[in-house]
Amino acid sequence: MTVRIHRFPLSDSSHTVEVRNPAGSVLVQGVDGATEVVVSVEALDGAAEQLLDRVDVSATATALRVAVPERRITRTPRYGIEVTTPPDVDVTLAVASADATLRGRLGQVVVTTASGDLVAEHAAALQARSASGDVRGGRVDGRFTAATASGDVQLDDARGPVDVRTASGDVVLARTVTDVSAKTASGDVRVERAVSGTVRVRTVSGDTTVAVQPGLRVWLDVQSVSGRLTSDLDGDAPGAVDDPTAALSVLLTSVSGDLRLRRAAPASPAH
Q: Which domain of life is it from (predicted)?
């Protein structure tokens, strides 16, 4: 299939990358030392090939925009779009079934998708909204916000506030250092290492597991109607649990979901 390449010189102003591509794939990568902005548009099927000349790729002093043609009567054209920019640019993506991949260090990221999956390596802040697509983040320095219906949400390194809402999607937060709010109906929630702040989790039938940083004092408020409550913190030293001055507060609420508290494994030494 045909591939079109567009090149734009860097301006003195910071860029915002805006991409609208319902079907296919989107890749945006922030590359250190990039001397220009490069956009690659590949037609992935016959319908896209016929409409390739109608793909709008334009740039101003502050923004780069890529928009594919509207859906045809019989099918949605599928395009593979790749954008290479310097790091730290803001990114806004609107996709439907297209998967989105963000590589390198990027700025404020906003992604809206229906069923496409999102993978973001490193963002200053990340806001994602999806129906059935999964959301996977590596490192987010600021606020992380995600809302899905059935899509799963996973974040490896949350360095800012976290706000996650799902209906049936599971939530996994590998490491959190400040406030967390997670709400789900039937999805499970797992926080693998909570370091500080307030962790609030509310579920209906989903199970919740929160692992607390070793040696950290914690204040607890745990409630469930019919779910089982399990705490591996009961054997901690006096004052380690239910300390109102603790650096970490954990508030867990469920209707029938099980709730578990434990200590996280000691962190591996840095090499």
A: Bacteria
